[in-house]
């Protein structure tokens, strides 16, 4: 690593203020701080609140996402290989089939290696497009504003592709991440100033702009000519009976079901949640209140029942393992920038999201997911929740001093 360190040190005088390439300092600083620990030492009196800075926070989230990434590649390949087996196809058409065949890798759904390899060929192009396009916008705004490139996009660049189906066109991926980064974050001033989660903002844009490529049954399995409904869509059309005939609760918990690439495995999300809670990055108040809000309200609707709406028959325990609930709960709702800041506000904020996700899923079965809209709506009311919590604290202190 020393030659690389020497190279960066040699470049440094040319990119600092007054140097020939000073406008490129943001690019240099991003590479330097990503590869090496900052060598500067704080001088004078300092007051350290805790050890968690932006870089550590973002890297902690990326580490917590690793089980989800592994499961995303495996399940994408698993669903595709299962579909090929049902269709009796020995080798799929297209460049992916050729690559795997040339490498001597088959399409056996019982082979973990074959499933991961096949899934990687669907996930990696989407991931690379997100990194290139999102990084382009992030770097350009940093250069124009003359500030450092922060680590905000690091997490968005991992979260956004995990919310997408494997068959989405790459140009739509580029458009979605552009909307999420530019409209969802940069127009408000960048990381720390946005009030909406950028990854969910980009996905919401794609959902409403191109619903056929992101919400149809055919998009969840990466095989041409194969259509497989997600558990939530089955529940919306056939209720609890249709859901359990196709999938078990354990399948949904582990994540071997159709869905967005990174949102199917509750188990993988729970592993990430454990790391985030132990590292102090995520709020347990938000996670707990979302769980309680979802379970309580879905229990009420389950007990009420309905003769016309099959979603009322889905037990509360199923809502916790279906769709993007676990993924949104762990990685989206707890976003420290767009979530409530106050401790009491976090309970209200989480309970509100839990209530809304069940409201959308059950009351409006035409859109059976609900988690994305619930979190975005929660983002919009989070500042209002915090405002009234702070106002109540001020009032209580005034009364205490009377």
Please supply descriptive tags for the structure shown above.
flat, 402 residues, mainly alpha, single chain
Query: Outline, from the CA principal axes?
Result: flat
Number of domains: 3
Average residue pLDDT: 87
Give the distance, in angstroms, between the N- and C-terminal Cα atoms: 64 Å
Name the assembly state.
single chain
How many strand segments? Answer: 0
Largest sheet report: none
**Percentage of β-strand residues:** under 5%
Q: What is the element string, with H for helices and E for strands?
A: HHHHHHHHHHHHHHHHH
Number of helices: 17
Rg from Cα: 23 Å
Task: Characterize this entry briefly.
Its EC number is 7.2.1.1. The protein has 402 residues and is mainly α.
Textual characterization of the structure:
The protein has 402 residues and is an all-alpha fold. The protein folds into 3 domains: 1-37, no CATH class; 56-228, no CATH class; 239-402, no CATH class. Helix content is 64%, strand content 0%. The protein contains 17 helices and no strands. The protein has helices spanning 2-15, 25-35, 54-64, 66-87, 95-102, 112-145, 152-162, 170-183, 198-209, 231-246, 249-254, 266-278, 284-304, 316-319, 325-332, 343-363, 371-401. Mean pLDDT is 87; it is low at 45-50.
List the helices and strands and how they pair.
Layout: H1 2-15, H2 25-35, H3 54-64, H4 66-87, H5 95-102, H6 112-145, H7 152-162, H8 170-183, H9 198-209, H10 231-246, H11 249-254, H12 266-278, H13 284-304, H14 316-319, H15 325-332, H16 343-363, H17 371-401
Helix pairs in contact: 3-7, 3-12, 4-6, 4-12, 6-7, 6-8, 7-9, 8-9, 9-17, 12-15, 13-16, 16-17
């Amino acid at each position: 690593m020393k030659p690389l360190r020497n190279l960066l040190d040699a470049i440094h005088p040319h990119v600092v203020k007054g140097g020939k390439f000073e406008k490129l300092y943001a690019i240099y600083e991003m590479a330097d701080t990503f590869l090496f620990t900052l060598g500067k030492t704080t001088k004078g009196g300092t007051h350290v609140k805790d050890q968690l800075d932006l870089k550590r926070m973002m890297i902690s989230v990326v580490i917590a996402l690793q089980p989800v990434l592994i499961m995303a590649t495996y399940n994408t390949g698993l669903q595709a290989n299962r579909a090929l087996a049902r269709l009796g196809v020995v080798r799929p058409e297209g460049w992916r089939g050729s690559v795997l065949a040339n490498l001597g890798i088959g399409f056996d759904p019982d082979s973990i290696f074959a499933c991961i390899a096949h899934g990687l060929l669907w996930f990696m192009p989407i991931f690379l497009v997100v990194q290139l396009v999102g990084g382009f916008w992030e770097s350009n705004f940093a250069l124009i504003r003359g500030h450092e490139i922060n680590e905000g996009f690091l997490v968005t660049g991992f979260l956004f592709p995990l919310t997408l189906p494997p068959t989405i066109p790459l140009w739509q991926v580029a458009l979605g991440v552009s909307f999420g980064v530019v409209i969802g974050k940069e127009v408000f001033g960048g990381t720390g100033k946005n009030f909406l989660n950028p990854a969910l903002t980009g996905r919401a844009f794609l959902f409403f702009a191109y619903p056929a490529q992101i919400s149809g049954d055919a998009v969840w399995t990466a095989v041409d000519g194969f259509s497989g409904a997600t558990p939530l869509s089955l529940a919306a059309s056939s209720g609890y009976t249709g859901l359990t005939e196709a999938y078990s609760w354990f399948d949904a918990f582990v994540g071997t079901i159709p869905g967005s690439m990174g949102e199917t495995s509750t188990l993988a999300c729970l592993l990430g949640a454990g790391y985030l809670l132990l590292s102090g990055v995520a709020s347990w108040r938000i996670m707990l209140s979302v769980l309680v809000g979802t379970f309580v309200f879905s229990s009420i609707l389950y007990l009420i029942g309905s003769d016309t709406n099959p979603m009322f028959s889905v037990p509360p325990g199923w809502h916790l393992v279906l769709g993007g609930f676990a993924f949104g709960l762990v990685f989206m709702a707890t976003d420290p920038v767009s979530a409530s800041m106050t401790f009491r506000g976090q309970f209200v904020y989480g309970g509100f999201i839990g209530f809304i996700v069940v409201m959308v899923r059950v009351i409006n079965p035409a859109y059976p997911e609900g988690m994305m809209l619930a979190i975005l709506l929660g983002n919009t009311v989070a500042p209002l929740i915090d405002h009234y919590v702070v106002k109540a604290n001020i009032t209580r202190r005034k009364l205490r001093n009377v």
